[in-house]
Amino acid sequence: MTFEVTILGCSSASPSYHRHPSAQVLNIFERFFLIDCGEGTQMQMERYKVKSQRINRIFISHLHGDHYLGLMGLLSTMHLQGRTKEMSIYGPKELKEIINIQLKYSQTILRFPIIYHDTNPDKRDVIFEDEQLSIETIILNHRIPCTGFLFKEKKKPRKLIKEMVEKYAIPIEFLHKLKDGEDYHQGNKIIKNEELTVAGNPARSYAYCSDTLYDERILESITGVNLLYHESTFMNDLIGRANETFHTTSKQAGIIAKKANAKKLLIGHFSARYKDLNPLLLEAQEEFLETRLSVEGETFRVE
Amino acid sequence: MTFEVTILGCSSASPSYHRHPSAQVLNIFERFFLIDCGEGTQMQMERYKVKSQRINRIFISHLHGDHYLGLMGLLSTMHLQGRTKEMSIYGPKELKEIINIQLKYSQTILRFPIIYHDTNPDKRDVIFEDEQLSIETIILNHRIPCTGFLFKEKKKPRKLIKEMVEKYAIPIEFLHKLKDGEDYHQGNKIIKNEELTVAGNPARSYAYCSDTLYDERILESITGVNLLYHESTFMNDLIGRANETFHTTSKQAGIIAKKANAKKLLIGHFSARYKDLNPLLLEAQEEFLETRLSVEGETFRVE
Fold first, then answer.
1. Quick one: how many helices (H) and strands (E) in chain A?
2. What residues of B are in the A interface, CB distance below 8 Å?
3. Residue B110: CATH number of its domain
4. B177: containing domain
5. From B77, which residue of chain A is nearest by alpha-carbon distance?
6. Could you tell me if A193 and A291 lie in one domain?
7. Same domain (yes/no): A215, A187
8. What's the CA gap between A51 and A303, in Å, rounded?
9. In terms of domains, do A20 and A80 share one?
10. Which residues of B are catalytic?
11. Element (H or E) spanning A71, and its range?
12. Cis peptide bond N-terminal to B211, omega within 30
């Protein structure tokens, strides 16, 4: 089952070297989620053949322009292209006011409804849940209210061992309990679940953490995550600047991935001062080998 | 003296085929004016090596997103790059509210002052004037309040014919009057100005007309203009759609250039439906031969 993220923008606030501000599309089982929507996101979608009509949920981390200024244009284009399907937007409560004032002055009534889901920057919340996945906020530590997002597959059911199920003649109506891990009682005898099933595929997860100071409190959200996207605005020689601006260095991103016991780290949100990003990669890899650089247009699988 | 416009964006509301929404930079005597600022303008400036720090006046025609959504990001980047020099913005009065609400929620206090100059969509106004040039609004006819902009060099002084000035021994203190076209009185004799001077270089002008219905009332603003930028959203087979949406067809743009006795026509604001723009060019050229297509990154001289 597909679980992958495509980077549309990986620059910090001032775009440079043809990098664009933050935006990425997460594809989980062919459901598409847009995470942040910096200026130019709709053009990046066109460039990388992301079908905007397939996006029904948009997640905005915070109200610095490089994370949301592409939203108004994207919504307008969806409107002009005839979208009628409702759009859910998860983000700071003030976002609605920013969108509405612009719709008002352009005298636009969108053909599709927007459902706003206000995020609470001070509390971990499950903001979406269905049978396949859950989405939680991550409390970040930035200059203005800011949340990350954790996308998790639901725990997979255990797989039946067909021969054993037949051997003990387990009734069909009990099979879903077996998949949930229950033991089977046959008269006085207990048949342990492990004898009848094996573990299902592990549930995968993706965490988006941008923008934030290095802050170990995020570990409670991201420990064990399969793919951690973490901002890495500066190299560690500029840790003073990182602290001042509530950002993270590459070294710190590597440390947090290691402490979180993440499977893989993807760094992004690069400062305009870096033309060559390899030194940032190497610095993070010294702490956490399984680090990758965000590259616009590239897709990273969550495994 | 330089007088030229560089196209940064020439698409209408939905960007497509890698065309960007409206934005252009006018260079008059090495003074740089930004006209409209669609989403992605700051990235287009980077691409085409336009130095944003040199821009001190920005002109916004109206509050449809494809004409101003790049403004907030551009101002933010100027701020982050340390700009302190004041910026003048000419546009609809509601623009200030849109900018201010976004500054408020991003908790940003710009390092440079913005001077807002509200445009009046119902009245031709001189909105800027100095010794070199004047800038006037043009009343356009769009779905929401919208103005074009007319940039005019000041009338050039007449040039002295050195030998004649010496022959009649015209006093130095009278020479500026000669340049202004006055005759010279020598005793009872009148020496006609034409004997002493020749016409100065003609004053050049550039008119920006986007977005608008075909409307001959603009002729009072643009007659005799050297370079007319006029929107040309559709081909004439979609004239019904053009009328509905308050836009112009290529044929109509050609007709208005002809009626205005313009020297040259530059068409732009192309609908996303046209991959190949040559048919729009040919249609306009049937009415007005001196037509050019807007091409992003290309510079057109006002001659």
1. 10, 18
2. 13-16, 18, 20-21, 39-40, 42-43, 46-47, 63-66, 69-70, 72-73, 76-77, 80-81, 92, 94, 97-98, 101-102, 105-107, 143-144
3. 3.60.15.10
4. 159-198
5. A14
6. no
7. no
8. 24
9. yes
10. 66
11. helix A71-80
12. yes
Q: pLDDT value at position A17? A: 87
Tell me the β-bridge partners of A88. Answer: A57, A115
pLDDT at residue B134 is higher than 90:
yes
Overall domain count for chain B: 2
**Residue B158 to residue A254: CA distance in whole angstroms:** 71
**With an 8 Å Cβ cutoff, are B73 and A73 in contact?**
no
10-residue mean pLDDT series, chain A (303 residues): 96 91 97 98 96 96 98 97 97 98 97 98 96 96 97 91 93 92 91 92 94 97 98 98 97 98 98 97 98 98 94
Q: How far apart are the first and last CA of chain B?
A: 10
Type of residue found at A1: M
pTM: 0.91
Q: Are B79 and B112 in contact (CB under 8 A)?
A: yes
Check whether residue B191 and residue B280 sit in a common domain.
no
Tell me the DSSP string of A175-215: HHHHHTT--EEETTEEE-HHHHEEPPPPPPEEEEE-S----
Strand partners, A37: A23
Q: Residues for chain B: how many in total?
A: 303
Closest residue by Cα to residue B186 from B167, B199, B162: B167
Which of B183, B198, B213 is a domain's end point?
B198
Of B169, B198, B227, the position where a domain reaches its end is B198
Q: Which residues of A touch B (CB under 8 A)?
A: 13-16, 18, 20-21, 39-40, 42-43, 46-47, 63-66, 69-70, 72-73, 76-77, 80-81, 92, 94, 97-98, 101-102, 105-107, 143-144
Report ipTM (2 d.p.).
0.90
Domain shared by B178 and B238, yes or no: no
- Cis bond before residue A211 (omega within 30° of 0): yes
* A85 lies in the same domain as A191: no
B166 and B51 share one domain? no
Residues A181 and A284 in one domain: no
